[in-house]
Amino acid sequence: MKQLFPAKQVMGFVFSLILTAIALAVYFLDVSFTAGLTILIVTAFVQALLQLIVFMHAGETKDKWSIYGNVYFMIFIALITIFGTLFLFSWDM
Amino acid sequence: MEFFERFAIPHPSPVIYASMVVIALTVIAIIAGLTYFKKWGYLWREWLTTVDHKRIGLMYLISALLMLFRGGVDAIMMRAQLAAPDNKLLDAQHYNEIFTTHGVVMIIFMAMPFIFAFMNYIVPLQIGARDVAFPRLNAISFWLFFMGAMLFNISFVIGGSPDAGWTSYFPLAGNEFSESVGTNYYMIAIQISGLGSLMTGINMITTIMKMRAPGMTMMKMPMFTWATLVANLIIVTVFPVLTVALAMGTMDRLFATNFFTSANGGMDMLWANLFWVWGHPEVYILILPAFGIYSEIISTFSSKNLYGYKSMVASMVIISVLSCLVWAHHFFTMGQGAASNSFFSITTMAIAVPTGVKIFNWLFTMWRGKIRFTVPMLYSIGFIPLFTIGGVTGVMLAMSAADYQYHNTMFLVAHFHNTIIPGVVFAMLAGLTYYWPKMFGFMLNERIGKWTFWLLSIGFVLAFFPMYITGLDGQARRMYTYSEATGFGTLNMISFIGAGIMAIAFALIVYNVYYSIRYSPRDIGSDPWDARTLEWATNTPVPEYNFAISPQVNSIQPFWDAKKKGHVLFPDKLDKIHMPNNSGMPFILCSIFFVWGFSFVFAIWPLVILSTIGIFACLALRSFEKDHGRYISVEEVKETEEKTGGAKL
Predict the structure, then answer these.
(1) Are A45 and A80 found together in one domain?
(2) Model pTM?
């Protein structure tokens, strides 16, 4: 019975619900703009990774390295773009 | 009648009315011709529904050549307007539209399909595959590009062309300053064809990663395949940024959002930023496959293998990473501080290093080689010094302090044409001449080809080198005229003469095709250049399955080894071959995309909704469709191999 029960998926599901609840709380609670946005960004990224690993089964097959390689590459590019833009328009203008 | 008024040209002129007549007559002639010669069925069966990478490659090629001439006409009109001071040939608005469409057409609808043509035709042959990884997706890519191009090209007769420059900077491109639908065309046509490019990117990466012939490790791939892989990685990386930026721009124009407006919390500079996050890597998407083609040609005609294979690969990978770190050098003067400008200056200059490595590798490949001065080789040899001049002026522009002098002048215009024409256009013409016998079974005439090369090179130097001088003297780009007192007149006249010589060279290419169709010998075999890589190991004309037997690869030049060192290229026996079926879906889907785009441009919402439903219906149908492809039997393969002259069995 224990082998059949998808404990990882159930835990993942519960955890994703919690993340959603935290994100939703930003709307109802009276937090500052910066704090609210920080919570949203953090929960969004954790949620995305959770979906990718638990429900889209990244890392369970042989082409693990190419999937994670792609993810790291895209995160790298996204960070360059975002921090480059902040560098140009916020920190140095 | 009120409904139709929106389609009128806001800024008509006799030239545009004449173009309308010509377009109408051409369409009628094509329809009449197809009907008279009973070619509708042939067109549908063999071309519109094809998923064969070679035919799709050829369609890209034809579209690219057509767009080359369209963009070329724009260029000649611009040079004619600037040939003399206070010229009245074009007015300011018309000039704006022409330089905008020239830029967009040449980059997105000429250079991109040209490199896609070679990627599609050559890469599966070079890696010994039977087709690309996703043949039907490939057809969708092509038709998306084609419909995007057509949508963009009808803008000048229906509704008016975009006029905010190919960079389409906001707030100029916003509703306030660009009232006509022109910029809507820009946003939506590029969006549609950009989707196609993104799909090609995914398709090519998968093809190269998964479908290489047995024995071909990554470090045994031909250089053009490597260049294609790296270029497509950049496509997948940066095209989403363009997609998002265009979507935001479209929303600003049609749905009154405020992403790029100067009021209500919008930020116009963000458009320039996002545009160049895509735009700078875009130039490397164009130049890397061009480098790949040069590598193939220089190696073949120096009768040597490529010098410094590993450093060639490494430098391309380094270029691809650096290309994503330099975008702000396009707007050094926008007001950011010295720290960020210095950062982007240094990364920009750093790109010169791996590029220099490549230049030296080509020189060392030729060093002590037995060089044959064929037309493709002439282009490659001409490319090296001319492109280096463009690269050096690029390093000049990269210095952010000095850029305040060069910014937005003709110096910049001269620089990027100096890299794109000897870099990309020469490579495309070299590749066209080099691969022509593989594509069509006869060679282009060498004598006319050499005339073309020399005229093009001389015309190029005359047309663009004077711009360096007028640019330093202060002639701004995109200005439709200048006064006599500026003293720019003589140099601009020289530019115009150069542009005229280039036009003659391009006309000679057309004549060369005609001449070669009539007089070129057809008995040239499948390897007329004595080449080294797998694409020449198959028969000419290439059978639809490319290789009857999957080739066995042992080095970076398996075909050469097979010819000279007794390497056995085809050790296996014939087997039945699995091929994909043709499908009309890509063409129909993308035709609906055209309607969708057109109705979006003019904000005809019922039609937008209808065509959106149509698009999703096509996608849903595809999901439920069962298509396992078909098999070509051994007998059929044998028959085809005998017919196409395959003696290799």
Answers:
(1) no
(2) 0.93
User: In this structure, are A6 and A50 located in the same domain?
Assistant: yes
Q: Chain A neighbours among B 464-483 (CB < 8 Å)?
A: none
Which among B324, B335, B343 is the nearest to A93, CB-wise?
A: B335
Cβ contacts below 8 Å, chain A against chain B, sum to 37
Q: B1 falls in which pLDDT band (50, 70, 90)?
A: low
Integer Cα distance of B562 and B571 in angstroms: 12
Determine which of A88, A89, A92 to mutate to test the interface with B (most B C-beta atoms within 10 Å).
A88
Kindly determine whether residue B209 and residue A66, on different chains, have CB atoms separated by under 8 Å. Answer: yes
Chain A CB within 8 Å of residue B343 CB = yes
Q: Is B265 on the interface with A (CB under 8 A)?
A: no
Q: Rounded CA gap, B291 and B313, in Å? A: 11
Structure tokens at B263: 């009021």
Tens place of pLDDT per residue across chain A (93 aa)? 677 888 888 999 999 999 999 999 998 988 888 999 999 999 998 999 899 888 888 878 888 888 888 888 888 888 888 999 999 988 887
- Does residue B20 surpass a pLDDT of 90? no
**Quick one: A11 and A32 in the same domain?**
yes
CA distances from B285 to B132, B140, B316 (A): 19, 20, 11
CB within 8 Å of chain B, chain A residues 74-93: 74, 77, 80-81, 84-85, 87-89, 91-93
Cβ-nearest to A93 among B209, B277, B336:
B336
Do residues A44 and A5 share a domain? yes
Using H for helix, E for strand and C for coil, what is the string for B568-600?
A: CCCCCCCCCEEECCCCCHHHHHHHHHHHHHHHH
Which three-class secondary structure string do you get for B499-526?
HHHHHHHHHHHHHHHHHHHHHCCCCCCC
Residue A37 lies in domain: 1-56
